[in-house]
Write a structure and sequence with these properties.
By secondary structure, the protein is α/β, with parallel strands linked by helices. It has one domain: Rossmann fold (3-Layer(aba) Sandwich), CATH 3.40.50. Helix content is 33%, strand content 11%. It has eight helices and eight strands. The strands form two sheets. Strands 3-2-1-6-7 form a five-stranded parallel β-sheet, with helices on both faces. A three-stranded antiparallel β-sheet has the order 5-4-8. Strand 1, helix 1 and strand 2 form a beta-alpha-beta unit. Helix 1 packs across helix 6. The longest helix is centred in the middle third of the chain and has 18 residues. The protein is globular, with a radius of gyration of 19 Å.
Length: 270
């Protein structure tokens, strides 16, 4: 594009909320029609997410752009395991005294926000100095049950919009809308090794997507040897136990509430 123009860009994670938002826009139930969707591929989504994204591309009346930072988050983490500098997923840590902690998360910025921003910049036709005017409205699929995730854009030329919040919709209402329209149920969208998974999600991954769960178990064992310059022992599960040894009874069954029961759905935990 040679000239800058204001665009409506939908941040697509191919999970429940962002998929519902995209399809509602396709039906004219959310306006204006987005100019495009951007899916930031970490290279670590379950196969079910990629299959659903393939299907969405066949039914949405606006383009879907897939972007990836370098070789993706998983390849980056693999480099970290071999001692090279890498972006940090929020891995759980245990020091020599048995004290638990968590690594500062940088993966969202590096592998979600940055590639989406770069593609948005290209689509609006921005070249040269950073513009002072708003050039893009980015739609984010956050529903009422996760309203605490709502945050304004860090970029002055991008404004955020939350259409599902505007409609007062919750996640179960998104699923109901999809069912009423006869659309297939979207998968849960998040990296298969994300440490923010609740026990419910780890168990779902184990039972419904065993290939991804097996990869997570293997990765969990290998990060114990260290990632880049992390000095503590690292784990994928907050219990500080090997993933294949964790009791994956659901949080509800154990009388606990879930701390991280959201799905990534486009922008992780922004």
């Amino acid at each position: 594009m040679d000239e800058k123009r204001h665009l409506n860009i939908l941040s697509l994670g191919a999970g429940v909320q962002s998929s519902t938002m995209a399809l509602m826009a396709a039906h004219g139930e959310i306006t204006p029609m987005p100019d495009a969707c951007i899916f930031s591929d970490t290279g670590a989504e379950p196969d079910s997410v990629y299959r659903y994204l393939d299907w969405l591309e066949t039914v949405l009346p606006f383009p879907v752009y897939r972007v990836m930072e370098k070789d993706g988050l998983l390849v980056d983490l693999e480099r970290g395991i071999t001692g090279h500098r890498c972006s940090n997923p929020p891995l759980f840590t245990e020091d020599e005294n048995g004290n638990g902690g968590i690594l500062m998360r940088t993966c969202t910025m590096d592998f979600k926000i940055r590639p989406i921003t770069r593609k948005t910049k290209e689509l609006v036709g921005w070249k040269g100095r950073k513009p002072k005017e708003v050039l893009c409205t980015t739609w984010i699929g956050i529903s009422m049950d996760e309203i605490q995730r709502v945050k304004e854009s860090r970029e002055p030329w991008i404004e955020h919009r939350w259409p599902l919040i505007e409609l007062r919709m919750r996640r179960h209402q998104c699923l109901q809308w999809m069912e009423e329209k006869g659309y297939p149920k979207p998968p849960r969208s998040a990296c298969w090794f994300c440490p923010y998974h609740s026990n419910t999600e780890w168990r779902r991954l184990r039972d419904e997507e065993p290939k991804e769960f097996a990869k997570a178990v293997d990765l969990d064992k290998r990060i114990r040897g260290g990632v880049h310059n992390a000095k503590s022992t690292l784990y994928l599960h907050r219990s500080l136990k090997p993933l294949d040894e964790v009791d994956l009874s659901t949080d509800v069954e154990r009388g606990q509430t879930t701390l991280w029961d959201d799905e990534c759905d486009g922008v992780c935990f922004l």
